[in-house]
Amino acid sequence: MGKIILFVGTPGAGKSTILEGIGSGKKVNIGTEMFEIARQRYKDKIANRDDMRRYLTPLQIKELRNDTFEKISRMTDKDDVIIDTHASIRNGNTFVPGFVLYEFDKLKGKIAAIIYIDASPQEILKRRRSDKSRSRDEESKSDVEEQKQINLSYTCAYSAYLGVPVYLMKNNDGKLKEAIKEAGSIVKEHFK
After folding, report:
1. CA 148 to CA 15: how far, in whole Å?
2. CATH assignment of 4-29+79-190, given 3.40.1180.10, 3.40.50.2300, 3.40.50.620, 3.40.50.300?
3. Full-model pTM
């Protein structure tokens, strides 16, 4: 049976960029997996990932997430899996957890660690503003700081529930190679 490592952090911290540089494990992005299922299921409504939060009901999102976690659980029958996702999702002034605790039950005993990727609010804002693949509301440094605090709180709750360690990593501008090396070492340690 394969193991799972969760990569979480604030959008723009560089989770996906770091994961591109790591050679170990099958990489799965929760949002991308949900989008693939949603695109097939709701062809008339969903053209991109951001459309899911705009046009789908909470029940539809819950069903997509359930199907996504079942798919990931099946992947771990053969492979180690790195999950790239957010600790929380912000929608206006509302934050929802990136995971609901019962979703972890589908992955019970498979999650070995959580890696929390972080960067300064200024770096995160700069990265978000330069990402033309996403449609985001205008944000300030204080918005990012608030989201970082909430994300770290959720991450600690996930760690306590799962009984697994959290590794806090910085992905500062100009230090990507070092961040990839550090993350790769953690992944190798758990995917032995």
Report:
1. 14
2. 3.40.50.300
3. 0.87
